[in-house]
Amino acid sequence: MILVVGAGGLVGGLVTRRLLREGWPVRALVRPGADIGVLDAAGAEVVVGRLRDQTTVAEAMADVGTVITTANSALESGAETPEATHLTVAGNRTLIDAAAAAGVDHLVFTSAYGADPASPVPFLAAKGQAESYLLERGLRHTVLAPDLVMEVWVAAVVGEPARSGGAVTIVGRGDRRHAFVAAEDVAAYAVAAATRAVGSAGPTGGPVTGPADGPGEGYYLPVGGPEALTWREVVAIHERVMGRPVRIRTVVPGELVPGVPPHLAATLALLDTYDSAIEMDAVSAAWGITPTPLEAILRRQLDLVYS
Questions:
Q1: CA dist., res. 250 & res. 59, Å (int)
Q2: β-bridge partners, 169
Q3: Residue 222 CB burial class (10 angstroms; 0-12, 13-18, ≥19)
Q4: What share of residues in the chain are helix, strand, coil (percent, to 5)?
Q5: How many CA atoms lie within 13 A of 17 on its CB side?
Q6: What DSSP state is assigned to residue 223?
């Protein structure tokens, strides 16, 4: 049995459906209020509960060999408050402790590129603390560290205002490069890591060195898209796909961004201070996963809007 934690979310839902299509038995842990109809209809065994609920998490671990967690609070209202960060850290600890107590063979933890316990961004700090705790517990694990997910960040910053005819707001100069990655690609790596481990073959390509290396048996895998893009290049791709120009306005770091929660605007300011270009050619070839271009995602979304 494979347990997917966060199955009601974007990446978690893709992971769950992909596992079920491949014939794996799946138990899906979703938070209260999530729409479980699709998961239930697809054949998942659905458990409703919060990650910090020790009893529910322990029950969800029964007869589980592998855990994939994609649980993510980045887009929730108030997600960057100290209280929310504390709950995120506590929830991840509860999950890791329950997996260790249940004798789970392998935990696939979906973190984030740039996660660090000392990060000024609470979301990245919480992910970094979870990575550190996972190492401390010595569980066999794979840490996936995806860069900015296209369907989340690109949609919020560029896609929504561009489609509505408004101006796209860029924080700073907008010339830093980031390896935007499709949610379906993150899901593909999570499933590959989990199912190859179940089959005792291990992730193809062997250990990947990185910040999560340390005590215990584990892999750390940064995950990016086919190319690193600037925000201005992302806007240009939207213009090409939509066939019309898109207005751009800029704000200095610290200013609010229309339509974007304040804590995400702070993250956008941080993104304007560094590049996150991830070389994926060797990894994608070894794992057999072809990175999805942003233009393909946008054309698919446009077809859905006008179909």
A1: 49
A2: 249
A3: buried
A4: 45, 15, 40
A5: 14
A6: E
Could you tell me the pTM of the whole model?
Answer: 0.89
List CB contacts of 299: < 8 A, sequence separation 6 or more: 241
In tens digits, what is the pLDDT along the chain, a chain of 307 residues?
Answer: 999 999 999 999 999 999 999 999 999 999 888 888 888 888 999 999 998 889 999 999 999 999 999 987 554 444 455 445 556 788 999 999 999 999 999 999 999 999 999 988 888 899 999 999 999 998 999 999 999 999 999 999 999 999 999 999 999 999 999 999 999 999 999 999 998 754 433 333 333 333 333 334 678 999 999 999 999 999 999 999 999 999 999 999 888 888 888 778 888 999 999 999 999 999 999 899 999 999 999 999 876 554 3
DSSP one-letter code for 106:
E
Which domains are delineated in the chain? Answer: 2-231+258-306 (3.40.50.720)
* Integer CA distances (angstroms), 184 to 18, 68, 294, in order: 9, 15, 12
Enumerate the β-bridge partners of residue 66: 2, 106
Tell me if 79 sits within 8 A of 123, measured CB to CB. yes
DSSP letters spanning 33-98:
T---HHHHHHT-EEEE--TT-HHHHHHHTTT-SEEEE----TTSTTTTSHHHHHHHHHHHHHHHHH
Q: Which two tokens stand for residue 242?
A: 């939509």
Q: Where are the beta strands (DSSP E) in 89-176?
A: 106-110, 141-146, 168-171
Find out whether 7 and 29 touch, Cβ atoms under 8 Å: yes
Tokens read off for 178 = 């980031």
CA distance 143 to 133: 12
